[in-house]
């Protein structure tokens, strides 16, 4: 009688203990979740509060200057446009070529493919500042000697986003079902004809979203460009690959380090513009992804 | 070959069209092969650009001054590729002052890092300790929270919660580091780091605010990678545990965590290597002094932020100060490369094989 009573109460208490532990665990999970959400919210609100006051049409059309009251971001906007577009186009071509070669023209278990794959994984793990060193040693000075120009920045960012783009485009090609290829071969098409007329059109949405993400990475990147000496108030737009330049992230960096309080508002306003640009690009990527959801 | 060709009936021989197609095919493959080698070329370039100046840093002496003047004019001459001191146009060669090569013993044995002042001190330990401390702070935030988010996504979140949470993580992951740097300098520093550090008065710049912010920056990546690792755990294990009466918590900590541990470990290592390589946040939030300290409440520099800092300053090319960029960069490259190799090994070695 008493024993069974004891066992029952024991079972009861372990159940209670388990329930309490479960509740505690859920609280921990919610905390980690809230950390991410609160971070994002605080970051956005804090930037909006400091930056909205400095936003105006003049802010977009004026040039950076040492005087906060008549500073704007025009040359940085154009600089970012030049550098990002160039590196986006070049890295897309290189990434697409690499991905097609690896996915469609080599054996997955061949030594060559394993070697190149490992190499790309390694590159993807290299800190961005190291790409800055590479750009400094090889492009700005050294063999190419392009100096601190739009071309150097674009080349450096191209090398930096290339591994990401390759991974994204490979995923896009992998997602195309092999039945499509086999059907094409069965009709007598060669490999390249199959790739060009069947696989690439089918993979286009995946390639587009992947490259937009790569380009947005290039748009927001600052570390390697710090080494490329673009930390000056450039008061003219780039006219070619050999022009001096500045880009939005670097202008934000520069303004954040200024002593005068007024520059903080400018930095925040520039952040708002940068985030809006990135947000728009991501929106485009999401729309493409949703529109073209093909079920194979 | 010709006899073989002629023995085939004419209408079965490869026509001109097909031969042209074959030529195109060969041409395309050749071009693709050249493009595919670009990654290898970049890797080679990185290694070369780091190793060569580092070698000279440790073996050659550099011009540091002329007469009583600190030497500052190398910039232009080095841009045009002048190496030999006689081409620099000094009147009197005996007046040239040289900085002796830095020894490996000094680099790894000294705790003073003042490359810009006088003859310079080149002990890399302050940078290593700064890197380690900031990485540690970041991982204390990102690892538990990231794994927690991954658990929530995989076991607790319904379709709707996932649809809200995934974009939040994606947006957070897409925020540029310079924006996080601004956030660290003007929000995390004054509002958080100042209030939670018990040991000393925290100034504008501190390793703490940089570390916290780097942790928040790598959080979405940590969560996504851990989520991937968790979803690789076979469903049969999870359902088996539920069938035995386990609660969701017990499934998470008792089944998913051990079964997905190799993947989670790999995710942690990758996140850490990201934290180690972070430049802009640390450069903005942790100051520009490589202080020899273990106190997170003080200014500090990491390897990456030192490289950025040295890149901003106008350092004469080929001076010892300029060469430190490459020496520290090589060290950073080796460390992150090692970590990435390790994460791949961990996945291979400790993967539990089911079925």
**Any idea of the CATH class of the largest domain in chain B?**
Mainly Alpha
Give me the CATH architecture of the largest domain in chain A, please.
Orthogonal Bundle
| Helix/strand order of chain B, N-terminal first | HHHEEHEHEEHHHHHHHHHH
The helix fraction of chain A, in percent, is over 70%
Main sheet overview of chain A:
none
Low-confidence stretches of chain B: 72-87
What portion of residues of chain B belong to β-strands?
Answer: under 5%
Q: Report the CATH superfamily of the largest domain in chain B.
A: MetI-like
Structural class of chain A: mainly alpha
Number of DSSP helical runs of chain B = 15
Largest interface: A-B, 88 and 90 residues
**N-to-C SSE string of chain A, H for helix and E for strand:** HHHHHHHHHHH
Number of beta-strand segments of chain B: 5
Rg of chain B from C-alpha positions?
28 Å
- The N- and C-terminal alpha carbons of chain B lie at a distance of 53 Å
Low-confidence stretches of chain A: none
Straight-line distance between termini of chain A: 65 Å
| Backbone structural class of chain B | mainly alpha
> Quick check: average pLDDT of chain A?
88
Shape of chain B: flat
- Approximate helicity band of chain B: 55-70%
């Amino acid at each position: 009688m008493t024993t069974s009573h004891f066992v029952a109460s024991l079972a009861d208490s372990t159940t209670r203990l388990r329930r309490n532990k479960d509740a505690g665990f859920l609280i921990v999970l919610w905390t980690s979740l809230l950390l991410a959400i609160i971070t994002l919210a605080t970051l956005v609100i804090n930037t909006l509060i400091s930056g909205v006051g400095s936003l105006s049409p003049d802010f977009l059309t004026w040039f950076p200057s040492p005087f906060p009251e008549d500073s704007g971001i025009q040359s940085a906007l154009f600089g970012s446009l030049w550098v990002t577009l160039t590196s986006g186009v070049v890295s897309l071509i290189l990434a697409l070529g690499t991905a097609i070669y690896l996915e469609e023209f080599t054996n997955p278990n061949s030594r060559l493919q394993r070697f190149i794959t490992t190499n790309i994984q390694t590159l993807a793990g290299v800190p961005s500042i190291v790409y800055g060193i590479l750009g400094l040693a090889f492009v700005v000075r050294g063999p190419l000697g392009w100096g601190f120009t739009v071309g150097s920045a674009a080349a450096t960012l191209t090398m930096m986003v290339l591994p990401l783009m390759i991974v994204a485009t490979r995923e896009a090609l992998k997602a195309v079902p092999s039945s499509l290829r086999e059907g094409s071969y069965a009709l007598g098409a060669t490999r390249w004809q199959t790739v060009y007329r069947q696989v690439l059109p089918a993979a286009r949405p995946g390639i587009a979203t992947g490259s937009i993400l790569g380009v947005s990475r290039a748009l927001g990147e600052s570390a390697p460009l710090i080494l490329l000496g673009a930390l000056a108030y450039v008061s003219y737009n780039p006219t070619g690959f050999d022009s001096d330049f500045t880009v939005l992230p670097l202008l934000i960096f520069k303004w954040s380090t200024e002593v005068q309080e007024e520059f903080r508002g400018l930095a925040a306003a520039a952040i708002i513009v940068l985030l809006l640009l990135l947000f728009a690009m991501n929106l485009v990527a999401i729309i493409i992804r949703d529109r073209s959801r093909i079920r194979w | 070959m010709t006899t073989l060709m002629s023995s085939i009936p004419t209408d079965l021989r490869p026509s001109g069209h097909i031969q042209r197609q074959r030529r195109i095919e060969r041409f395309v493959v050749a071009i693709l092969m050249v493009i595919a080698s670009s990654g290898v070329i970049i890797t080679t370039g990185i290694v070369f650009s780091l190793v060569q100046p580092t070698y000279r840093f440790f073996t050659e002496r550099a011009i540091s001054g002329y007469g009583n003047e600190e030497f500052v004019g190398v910039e232009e001459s080095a841009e045009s590729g002048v190496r030999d001191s006689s081409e620099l146009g000094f009147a009197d060669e005996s007046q040239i002052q040289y900085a002796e090569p830095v020894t490996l013993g000094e680099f790894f044995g000294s705790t003073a890092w003042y490359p810009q002042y006088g003859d310079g001190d080149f002990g890399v330990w302050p940078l290593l300790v700064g890197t380690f401390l900031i990485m540690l702070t970041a991982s204390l935030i990102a690892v538990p929270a990231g794994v927690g988010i991954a658990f929530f996504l995989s076991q607790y979140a319904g379709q709707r919660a996932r649809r809200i949470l995934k974009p939040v993580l994606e947006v957070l992951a897409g925020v540029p580091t310079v924006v996080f740097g601004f956030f660290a300098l003007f929000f995390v520093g004054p509002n958080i780091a100042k209030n939670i550090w018990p040991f000393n008065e925290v100034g504008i710049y501190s390793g703490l605010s940089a570390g916290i912010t780097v942790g928040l920056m790598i959080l979405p990546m940590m969560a996504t990678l851990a989520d991937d690792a968790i979803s690789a755990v076979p469903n049969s294990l999870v359902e088996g545990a539920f069938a035995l009466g386990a609660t969701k918590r017990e499934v998470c900590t008792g089944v998913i965590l051990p079964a997905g541990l190799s993947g989670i470990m790999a995710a942690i290592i990758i996140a850490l290597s990201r934290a180690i390589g972070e430049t802009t946040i640390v450069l903005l939030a942790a100051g520009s002094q490589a202080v020899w300290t273990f106190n997170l409440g003080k200014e500090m520099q990491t390897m990456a932020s030192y490289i950025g800092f040295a890149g901003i300053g106008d350092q004469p090319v080929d001076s010892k100060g300029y060469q430190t960029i490459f020496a520290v960069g090589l060290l950073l490259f080796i460390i992150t490369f090692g970590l990435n190799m390790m994460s791949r090994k961990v996945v291979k070695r400790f993967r539990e094989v089911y079925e």
